[in-house]
Every structure is written in structure tokens, then in C-alpha cells.
Design goal:
Elements lengths: L1 H9 L1 H8 L13 H13 L8 H4 L3 H6 L9 H23 L3 E9 L8 E10 L2 E2 L2 E5 L5 H20 L1 H5 L9 H25 L10 H9 L3 E5 L4 E5 L6 H11 L2
Antiparallel strand pairs: 1-2, 2-3, 2-4, 5-6
Helix pairs in contact: 2-3
């Protein structure tokens, strides 16, 4: 009751609730954003940091009284959805103040109807000039939400991008032969070509503006360029155009890859 009375004296949750958007369909909502905020904050003051605790706390008469309810409060999944919405709101507010991209990270415990238990969900609340760009990742890994998202899951997504680029850029989807082996040989050739281009990207282009370019971009800007070739018994000279826009990158990659 002490927490509830102090909250009313300050008007803290009332003022905060006015600042929060509520995109829910109000006709279907059983719990107002003010009640959700009060329920979560009061439980935190009592030492209940895990939203899953509310599956039992929602029936606690003292907490119901503090929230001005005499019926069961919100369940854990409802609170998780409410907290997941709070991060995007904060990211949007910071973006409106600064005009720059904002990224905030957090986590919630969430249990879908078909899941046997709640699972940890990483939340990335990002707001850009074009609008919100949220991401949710279910994980069983331990660690800081931002580190897991940036260093583990984004890295895995980058690997998937490299696999997908084999189809349009290295023609891995050309399977025009009736027998299986010629088609497999064509795919294997594309995979080997990808290895070569990946090594150019990794060892020759790291730290440059093409460090994360697709192989089609590398081919267009560094491989398929015009040159005059002079050959004699001692050497072969490639004379590139002085107006080539990527000559600095080409020269750097050659220096890095030279034996």
C-alpha cells in the first residue's frame, strides 16, 4: 500500500501512461495501459522482476487493490506485449528529438499458445527516418540482448545472405540438364567461384566501402573493367583507365592479395 499511495501522491504512473501510445484495439482490451503500468511497477517494487510471476500475482488481492481492480489482473503474456511496445515508443521519441536513427534493446519472456513454456525474446526497437523497424528474436542463449543480436544473430543472417547471393550472381539456379550430376557440377562450380570472391572480399576489401558488397557488385566494380593489356617475353602489363572510379580499391586489393 505504501507504493500505491506514493504513486498517487506523485501521479507518476498516470503521467507516464498519458505519454505512451496504445495501438491495441480498445474494444478488445481488458486492461488499460495505466493498470498494466501500475501492475508491473508495483510488482517490481515488491521484488518480482520476472513477468512470468504475474500468472500467480494477478490473483493477489493486495496487488489488485493497488491497481484499483477487484478482478484478476493481466497475465504474463499481456504484460510482455505491453513492455515490448514501450521500447519502440521510447525509440520513436528519441528519434523525434534528435532526428537520428535510434536503436534500443531489451528482452521479454513470452509464451505462445502452442509453446510448453515461456521463452526469452530479444527486442530491438529501431526508429529510422522511414519509420519503425522492430525485430524480435527467440533465443535460449545467455548474454546481453544487444551483443547477442549484433554479434550472433546478425552474423548468422549475414551468412544466409552469402548463401542466397549464389543464385542470382553465380547462377546456382541454372539446372537445365536432365541428369542429376551435371546440375550438381554446375552448382559446385558456383560454390567454388563464391569461395574465391569471398576471399577477395574478406582479405582484399576489409575496411573499405565494399567490405560487405555482394559478389555481383564486386564483379561489376572491380572485375569487369576495361584495360589495355601489353605482353612481351618478360611481363604482362595491365593499363587501367585513369578515370576508373574504383582504381584506389583495385590497387589496394591487389596489394593485399599479392604473395
Amino acid at each position: 500500500m505504501l507504493v500505491s499511495e506514493q504513486d498517487r501522491r506523485l501521479g507518476l504512473t498516470t503521467r507516464i501512461a498519458r505519454l505512451l501510445d496504445d495501438p491495441r484495439r480498445q474494444a478488445s482490451c481488458q486492461h488499460s495501459k495505466l493498470n498494466l503500468l501500475r501492475q508491473r511497477l508495483h510488482a517490481l517494487c515488491l521484488g518480482h522482476e520476472d513477468p512470468n510471476d504475474h500468472d500467480e500475482l494477478r490473483h493477489d488481492a493486495a496487488l489488485q487493490t493497488a491497481v484499483d481492480r477487484d478482478t484478476p489482473l493481466a497475465c504474463a503474456s499481456t504484460l510482455c506485449r505491453f513492455e515490448a511496445q514501450a521500447l519502440p515508443d521510447e525509440a520513436r521519441g528519441r528519434h523525434e528529438e534528435s532526428g537520428e536513427k535510434q536503436r534500443l534493446f531489451g528482452e521479454i519472456a513470452y509464451q505462445a499458445q502452442t509453446w510448453q513454456r515461456p521463452r526469452r525474446v530479444l527486442v530491438k526497437a529501431e526508429h529510422l527516418v522511414g519509420g519503425a523497424n522492430p525485430r524480435y528474436v527467440v533465443t535460449n542463449l545467455e548474454g546481453d540482448p544487444q551483443e547477442l543480436y549484433d554479434q550472433v544473430y546478425c552474423a548468422r543472417g549475414e551468412m544466409e545472405n552469402r548463401i542466397r547471393e549464389q543464385r542470382p550472381d553465380l547462377f546456382a539456379d541454372l539446372a537445365g540438364c536432365s541428369p542429376w550430376w551435371p546440375n550438381r557440377s554446375l552448382m559446385l562450380t558456383g560454390e567454388l567461384a563464391h569461395v574465391l570472391l569471398e576471399q577477395i572480399r574478406r582479405h582484399g576489401l576489409y575496411g573499405t566501402r565494399l567490405a560487405r558488397a555482394h559478389v555481383g557488385t564486386i564483379r561489376l566494380k572491380l572485375l569487369r573493367i576495361g584495360a589495355v593489356i601489353l605482353r612481351n617475353t618478360r611481363r604482362v602489363v595491365f593499363m587501367l583507365s585513369g578515370s576508373c572510379p574504383y582504381q584506389d580499391l583495385f590497387r589496394l586489393a591487389v596489394q593485399r592479395l599479392a604473395p
